[in-house]
Design a protein that fits this description.
Elements lengths: L2 E6 L7 H14 L3 E5 L2 H6 L3 E3 L27 H13 L4 E6 L1 H12 L3 E6 L15 H22 L2 E6 L6 H9 L4 E3 L8 H13 L5 E6 L5 H12 L3 E5 L11 H19 L5 E6 L2 E6 H6 L6 H10 L2
Parallel strand pairs: 1-2, 1-4, 4-5, 5-10, 6-8, 6-9, 7-8
Antiparallel strand pairs: 2-3, 10-11
Bound molecules: 6-O-phosphono-beta-D-fructofuranose.
Length: 320
């Protein structure tokens, strides 16, 4: 490997900059050249390629977002487009690529590898929905951001004796919702993975809680369930308790990364360069069972992971 390309793709996540910085500096320390590709796969096709030196990644470790910008690129599914992308890499002397993103980005890495470019994926998404890894870049910052926002909503919810339904991101996964539910001591957590709840039971529990003198009722609703505003309306009508819905939205994706996100993203960035230099390709860097490791992309994409039944069940007990 002589020249390593790096790109970020899909939704941005806090800590991506720390990973980019680590890729650039680990590669330089091993005598490699680095090229940054702007705007993900779309930018690769447009040849938005810049040389990256150590100084170009200074003062970014603490910043949210991605200095390389990001985009989604649906046309990358086409075989001719994948071939064209590999030719562009060769034209620019890029023989190894580090791709930071989610499942969709890894499918791109898989295709690029099939076209002869060595690729390594790094999991970057606030959703934590990548099966091969217990950690994804941005999740820790996102849950801390959401937790702080929910604490604030709780203050006003208590003062007004309201029910607050707070919708958090996560696409079709409920990890952010489960973590916030536990961290914020929510009365209810609605997860797409456990979508069997009975609305009448929620209504009964709100009425019961009010009788026992509880001043608020916090429901954390995952984006994968959605419809928070209509749920608030139905709850208010059925219980007589005022209800408000708040959709936290994209604020969960921004902000300065936490220490954990900076350290893990830095480690994964350097690790990706190390295994590229060892001659590995078509791998995803993972963190599993307390260790950094790497998996074949096909195998990683075929893996599944569950959300913790135990944590979901104790959340109910802890919020009585
Ligand atoms: O994957 C990250 C994520 O923030 C999801 O939680 C959410 O469903 C989606 O991206 C939102 O995408 P967009 O930024 O395109 O609205």
């Amino acid at each position: 490997i002589k020249t390593i390309g790096v790109l970020t793709s899909g939704g941005d996540a806090p800590g991506m900059n720390a990973a980019i910085r680590a890729v650039v500096r680990q590669a330089i320390s091993k005598g490699k050249k680095v090229k940054g590709i702007k705007r993900g796969y779309a930018g690769l096709l447009d040849e938005e390629i810049v040389d990256l030196e150590a100084k170009h990644v200074s003062d970014i470790i603490q910043r949210g977002g991605t200095m390389l910008l990001t985009a989604r690129c649906p046309e990358f599914k086409e075989p001719e487009v994948q071939q064209q992308a590999a030719e562009i890499c060769r034209k620019h002397g890029i023989d190894g690529m580090v791709i930071i993103g989610g499942d969709g980005s890894f499918r791109g890495a898989q295709k690029l590898a099939a076209q002869g470019i060595n690729t390594i994926g790094i999991p970057g998404t606030i959703d934590l929905d990548i099966a091969c890894t217990d950690y994804t870049i941005g999740f820790d910052t996102a849950v801390n951001t959401a937790m702080q926002a929910i604490d604030k909503i709780r203050d006003t919810s208590t003062s007004h004796e309201r029910c607050s339904i707070i919708e958090v991101m996560g696409r079709s996964a409920g990890y952010i919702a489960l973590w916030c539910g536990l961290a914020n001591g929510a009365e209810r957590i609605l997860l797409p993975e456990k979508y069997n709840y009975d609305e009448q039971k929620i209504v009964n529990s709100i009425i019961e809680n009010r009788k026992r003198g509880k001043k608020h009722y916090i429901i954390i609703n995952a984006e994968g369930i959605g419809h928070s505003t209509s749920l608030a309306r139905r709850i208010e009508a059925a219980t007589g308790m005022e209800a408000r819905a708040t959709i936290l939205g994209h604020m969960q994706r921004g902000g300065s990364p936490t220490c954990k996100d900076r350290v893990y993203a830095s480690t994964m960035g350097a690790y990706a360069v190390d295994i590229l230099c060892e001659g590995k390709s078509k791998r995803i860097v993972s963190y599993r069972d307390g260790k950094f490791c790497d998996d074949d992309v096909d195998e990683a994409l075929a893996m599944t992971k569950d959300i913790s039944d135990y944590q979901y069940s104790i959340a109910k007990n802890l919020s009585i």
